[in-house]
Design goal:
Elements (H helix, E strand, L loop, with lengths): L4 H6 L7 E4 L3 E5 L7 E7 L12 H18 L5 E4 L15 E5 L19 H14 L1
Antiparallel strand pairs: 1-2, 2-3, 3-5, 4-5
The structure holds guanosine-5'-monophosphate and zinc ion.
Length: 136
């Protein structure tokens, strides 16, 4: 697509810090990193999001690229892979991409507003107290 910024990166028309590339996909560092490692994996062909008819071969190539990014960036301890679909989910670039995030620890997986252990978290403590008051 002519007006798509990620298509332009895939075509090397716009510069990016490329981490990995093959015939089907390209991986490059995010301009506004949300973790010490924040790399985007995109298909070279334009698909709007993860459910926009992406061929199985391309999805497999993207999974391979995630593994290559993890290896190249030394993410041996673990990493997150996130894909936003649609504005409500926070998608801002309408060309399918996987965010690969790593180089730090997340104490809890996708918890609701709490990254601390339950016994130290005032938000969870108050919720638990409210539940006890409701049911007891
Ligand atoms: P989304 O919000 O759509 O899930 O993620 C889009 C991501 O693309 C954001 O994290 C944003 O920082 C990144 N981004 C937007 N424009 C550019 C660009 O021109 N170059 C690079 N490297 N990243 C970009
Ligand atoms: Zn595109």
């Amino acid at each position: 697509m002519s007006d798509c910024i990620f298509c332009k990166i895939a075509e090397h028309e716009i510069p990016a810090t490329v981490v990995y590339e093959d015939d089907l996909v390209i991986a490059f560092d995010d301009l506004n990193p949300q973790a010490p490692v924040h790399t985007l994996v995109i298909p070279k062909a334009h698909h709007e999001n993860i459910i926009d008819g992406v061929p199985a071969e391309t999805l497999a190539a993207m999974t391979h690229a995630v593994a290559e990014v993890a290896r190249i960036k030394g993410l041996d301890e673990g990493f997150r892979v996130i894909s936003n679909k649609g504005e409500a989910a926070g998608q801002t670039v309408m060309h399918f991409h996987l965010h690969v995030l790593g180089g730090k620890r997340w104490e809890r997986a996708l918890s609701k507003g709490c990254s601390r252990r339950l016994r130290f978290c005032a938000v969870h403590r108050d919720r638990v107290h409210a539940m006890i008051e409701t049911y007891v």
